[in-house]
User: Fold this.
Amino acid sequence: MAMPGVYAYTATPLPLSDDGAELAEILSRDIPWEVYMTARLIADKDLQLIRRYDKRSEELQASLLDESGPAYIEAFLTVLRNVTKEETVQYILALLLQMLRANPARAKLFHQVGEAHAAAAGGAASQAELNPYAVLLRLLQRADWFTQEKSCKLLTRVIAARPHRDAPFVHVAGSSAAAAAANGAASGPGDPAEPHITSFVEWLCGQLRRPSNPAKSVPTAVSALAVLLRDKATRGLFTAAAGVGLLAPLLRSCTGPTSSQLAYEICLCVWQLSYHKPALQALASSGVSKGLVEVVRSAQKEKVVRVALLSLRNLLGEPELGAASDMVEAGLPKVLATRSLQSWGDEDIPELLESLAAALKEQAVVLSSWEKYKKEVLSGNLDWSPMHSSEGFWRSHVDKFEDKDFQVLRVLLKLLERSRETRTLAVACNDVGRFVEYHPHGRHIVADLRGKELMMRLLTHSDADVQKHSLLAVQKIMLPRDKLDFMLAASSSA
Assistant:
């Protein structure tokens, strides 16, 4: 499956226009640059360049950059490398972002700095000391969010502008360069930025798992990934970092018009990953199809609908993935029929709706309720579908939990231990409680598998729904059968 050569559906790297007021506030500060020269943190030439550039008009700054751009970038990077004072670091980051807002092509200057610095210092070791990647990666570890966020945006633009974008990554599993290296064959020089991009991708995945900033970490990380995943090699890095499975839960949480841009960029990541075979398999097993269907159903902006449809088309393009059944279960046929009645400004959307409907008819397979349930559990992302509360389902299928040494039950318990999505935790608590309720030996089986211990930990969870369902499950585990039956009878009659 070849990827289109023209990125008709992508945005420019991390648009900076929203930062204008924030950057202006930071740049209103007065920084005592002479102090840093006196402390030998910057050289006299750095001080002169900074004085010449700082607080000048945009026209003069542009002229200075056109004349000696790499020298100015080197001076700014020297400050970021040597100075630790938060106000000063933030100031330089704001200055650099303002520079890129005026002209995004100036990101190339960062790479000319490395070459010029190495030549002036007479060796590669000196270049490494002022490596733009290394300087910005180190700032990602700072405590304040402004520094993390702005370093992330700068690093994304610097990586996107690197001169060796077509060079392969030699350490990515599954890449042709890695295979050649493993077989002792020469594959040509790799991309020198690979170790830095690897570290950056790992940091971005970390922000998706445990955000530094509750409101801004995820949108910032997703925006960066939407740019980085344009490169084939970076898709391999993201897949190797187990990042693919993080996208489906994020997509499910994007509800309402205020999340439109985030939904678009997540779908953009999914679409780009769908051209990478190992990622495609991970996408299908993560249950991302259901989130994409919901985006097609509810999105108002055409660009969001289009990229979601393109992602679904690519998933259907590999029938062995079995994504069609997920799409049918999520109601895609009805969604396609409804959306086909609308008029679209984008002429590609009606064609996509029609081709998807035809592909679904060819591939759709009706799964039994147990197969649907098992597939959902194994995906690692649970939702409140009717099966989780249906007495008939649990009475009919509780014995199937014994298959493959209680595989499904063990996965539920693993989710209780590792998942960070509150809805998945609440549903998993409910299901373990249901198993205890309907299986004749459920209480002892769950206890033997440390289920009681896992439930007890969740009693103090920050989410009220998780607390509620973990408490119910613990009661079911601890109460004798006669008292459990009494409690259930009382609750059903209440």
Notes: The radius of gyration is 27 Å.
